[in-house]
């Protein structure tokens, strides 16, 4: 399994009038964790796009368990359990500072040739980076 962890506080603008994180922000948190994971691999998303492959979201699954609130410090997890071929599935979770699971889900990404817009396989550099880290944690 590939594992990456990103930490940050809940910011005021992410909350509603009750001081609770608006549900749409969890999708942004997922993205922050995914992008951080790719940077940790040594193959950031910007490099993937420079190499001619975009990585659009195909689907997002998000299950809300416990509200995150203003003042919370969040830990956002991204995991990969299997090597990608045409799609990459990333498990995602958000925990508060007490270790309470706030949200869990999965994001499925596809790969498109940037020049043609047509589906393509996972870039070799990304596949190699995932293989290198598959059993790190």
List keywords for this structure.
single chain, 137 residues, two-stranded antiparallel sheet, alpha+beta, elongated
Question: What order do the helices and strands come in, and which of them pair?
Answer:
Elements: E1 2-9, H1 25-41, H2 45-50, E2 53-54, E3 57-64, E4 73-80, E5 87-95, E6 101-110, E7 112-113, H3 124-133
Antiparallel strand pairs: 1-4, 2-7, 3-6, 4-5, 5-6
Descriptive overview:
The structure is a single chain. The chain has helices at 25-41, 45-50, 124-133, and strands spanning 2-9, 53-54, 57-64, 73-80, 87-95, 101-110, 112-113. It is α+β, with helices and mostly antiparallel strands and 137 residues long. The protein has a 5-stranded antiparallel β-sheet, with helices on one face. A hairpin with a 6-residue loop joins strand 4 (73-80) and strand 5. The longest helix has 17 residues, at 25-41. The relative contact order is 0.25.
Q: Helical amount among residues, as a percent range?
A: 10-25%
Widest β-sheet, arrangement of strands: 1-4-5-6-3
SSE ordering:
EHHEEEEEEH
Q: Which CATH top level class fits?
A: Alpha Beta
How many structural domains can be distinguished in the coordinates? 1
Mean pLDDT: 95
Shape: elongated
Summing up helix and strand content along with how strands pair, one would put the structural category as: alpha+beta
Helical run tally: 3
Summarize the structure.
By secondary structure, the chain is α+β, with helices and mostly antiparallel strands.
């Amino acid at each position: 399994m590939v594992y990456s962890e990103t930490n940050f506080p809940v910011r005021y603008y992410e909350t509603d009038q009750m001081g609770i994180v608006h549900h749409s922000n969890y999708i942004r948190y997922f993205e922050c964790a995914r992008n951080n994971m790719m940077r940790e691999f040594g193959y950031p998303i910007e490099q993937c796009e420079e190499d001619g492959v975009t990585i659009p979201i195909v689907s997002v699954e998000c299950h809300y368990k416990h509200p995150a609130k203003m003042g919370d410090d969040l830990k956002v997890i991204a995991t990969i359990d299997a090597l990608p071929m045409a799609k990459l599935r990333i498990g995602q979770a958000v925990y508060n500072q007490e270790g309470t699971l706030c949200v869990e889900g999965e994001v499925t990404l596809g790969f498109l040739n940037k020049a043609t817009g047509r589906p393509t396989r996972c870039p070799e550099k990304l596949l190699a980076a995932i293989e290198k880290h598959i059993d790190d944690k």
